[in-house]
Amino acid sequence: MKKFALATATATALTLAMANAAFAQPTQAPMTLAAGEMTKAKESTSDTWITTKVKADLLTEKGIPGSDIKVETNKGVVSLSSDVAISDSQKATAVAITKKIKGVTAVSADGLMAGGAAKADNIDKSKEATSDTWITTKVKADLVTEKGIPGTDIKVETNKGVVSLSSATPVTESQKATAVAITKKIKGVKAVSADGLKAE
Known about the structure:
Blueprint (H helix, E strand, L loop, with lengths): L1 H59 L8 E6 L2 E6 L5 H13 L5 E6 L8 H10 L1 H15 L8 E6 L2 E6 L5 H13 L5 E6 L4
Parallel strand pairs: 2-3, 5-6
Antiparallel strand pairs: 1-2, 4-5
Helix pairs in contact: 1-4
InterPro entries: BON_dom, Lipoprotein_DolP, Transpt-assoc_nodulatn_dom_bac
Protein name: BON domain-containing protein
Keywords: Signal
C-alpha cells in the first residue's frame, strides 16, 4: 500500500512538473515574438530615417545640387538619382556623404546623371530659391533623429520660412513642445505653427 501511495505521489509530482514546464513555454514564446516584431518595426523606420538624413546632409553640403538629388532607401541600400546633369566630382561627393550615414549598407549612384559642369555660384543661388525645401528636409531630419518624439509621423511644410507641423497620430504636450523647440533652432525658420499637431 505504501509503495502504491509513493508511486502515485511520484506520478503526481511528475505530472505537475511537466504541466509547469508546458505552462512556462507559451508565456516565453509571445515575448520572443514581440521582440521580433519590434525589430521589424525598427527596420522599417530605419530606411525612412536614412533617406531623410541623407537628403538633409546633401542639401546642407555646399557645391552640390542637393535639392535636385532624389534619395531612396531599401534595407539600408541607398539609391541616388537626378534629372539634372551633375559633375563627376559632385557625384563622388554625394556618394561619400551618403556612405557616412549610420545604417547605410551600400550606395547606388547609377541614377546620377554625371557630365554636367555646374558652377558653385549658380548652385548657391538655387539653394536660396529652394531654402523652404532645405528647411523642410532639415526639420524632418532633426525630428526623426530626436529620441522620444514620433518624428516619422510628423508632417513638415515650409512657406517663406514659416514651418507648419502636423500629425495624423496624437502626440503628448511635451512631444509637441520638443518638436517646436527643435524646429525653431533651424537656420532660416522665421516662425513655427504647430496647430496641426494633435496633442493627447
